[in-house]
Amino acid sequence: MGFASYFNRDIIALNKRLSSNSDNQIRSILSNHLICIEFDEQITKSREANICIELLIRILCRFYPVITLRSSINEASKYISKLQKLAKSVNSNIEFNDTKKPTLIISAISKSSSQKEIPHIFLGSDGWVAKLSQSQTLTFGDTSNPFGAGMAACIAASNVLRFVFKEQLKQPLDEEVKFSVYDFSRTTDPNISIDEIVLNDVTLVGIGAIGSSTVWTLSKLRKLRGNINLIDHDHVEESNLQRYILLVEKDKKKWKVDIAKKALRQSNLSINPIKNDWAKFVKEFYKEKCSSRIVAVCVDSTEDRVRIQSSLPNKILNAYTDGSRFGISRHPNFNKNVCLACLYVPNAQQRSKLEIIVEELNMKGHEKLIYQYMGTAKRIDHDFLAIFCHKNQISIDQVKEYKNKSFGDFYLEMVCGYKMLEFQEKGQRAEHVDVPLSFQSCMAGLMLAAEIVLESLGVNRENLKDVSQWNVLDKLNEDNPSHYSYIKNVSKQCICGDQDYKEVYELKWGE
Length: 511
Ligand SMILES: [Zn+2]
Known about the structure:
single chain; 511 residues; alpha/beta; Rossmann fold; eight-stranded mixed sheet; seven-stranded mixed sheet; 18 helices; globular; binds zinc ion
């Protein structure tokens, strides 16, 4: 079967949501489905249709072992083979089955679809607006705006997952969707032109699952000028492929920022890739005085977020995933609005990350050893495995495949997957660690790209609240996505309550 080589990560992501420990059960459910993507001549005429279909392939091929592509247009075979090539580059194991009857058809066609007895998800878009229907065909606009089309693909992917795992997830599908990426509303396209976008000193911190989706989305904008710093100090690991929609298999071991720079090469952007972390970037690039105007944050730790806020850039846009949700938070003015650190003020009661990890790996007494591997480039080696095996009373043969893996991958597969459960009955699955689903990170990255573009265009969206959050496995409704306003410095411990920080911000930005 055509499961991706990095499918174990999906098992971890699904196990959290399906309350099932069975790898085989998940694989067999997926193997019994055949998802069909059908398209018509819109793929040749509409840029939006093209973007939507490309993203569908990029998302679905990471997860589903078999798909089929269908079209009755004149040059169908040319387009199908191009899309199959993209699918293979994402997951070289994927299979295409043109003989079996599909179980679900994702339809990007404007006139009546074939095989009406099979459930359909119809897709369309109109500029900023994503459209989806279970009952009627839709159309794609021909703007150069990738946001509605990209979001339509993400919402479709969420519905496909809910369809395939309907017994386990028990989540209803969206029947009719009209969703504007511009302001999270159900209204029509706001008619804001994105023909010419100038990014004025934008810094994207973290080219991870969210950041790579932001880059992919920005790469689809036709006229992008200005300058952007791309910050990430990591190389691509195989497990990243599970949800980094920008990546293909041959990107393994490359620098994440190099892949991002290459993706944006068609734009007129001046791109500054930085193979370092935020602190070193500020130290070297700004000589300790960060004067970044717009910082888009999609790092994966609370500490890094607080660190970025404490450098006092002018404006911060932040994207995150959390459980089955993703969210966007906006911090336009450190002295007037809720700051990024307000959202992440540590709770004194919280145990340290190291303490939790040591306990979950059953390696008490080896805190110092583990600390050496956490967050560094140091790979899992024989010495580490020998101690781990001794503490857990297992043979080294059972874990030899982990040699040379990063600590992060080792930890995730051991604790969040099922490995520890296999080794010992008392093994537990970490409650606090989560692997997001690919379309979930993709949606967060796409929304972050939209925030960057709207901020750069100077669009006034003061009516939007501090945080917008969306449960991606739930139907879209009045409360999903939901919007929140936070109280500034509610803990009375946040840096935005500190007079020194306030003065430095005012001095820097005059507001
Ligand atoms: Zn604050």
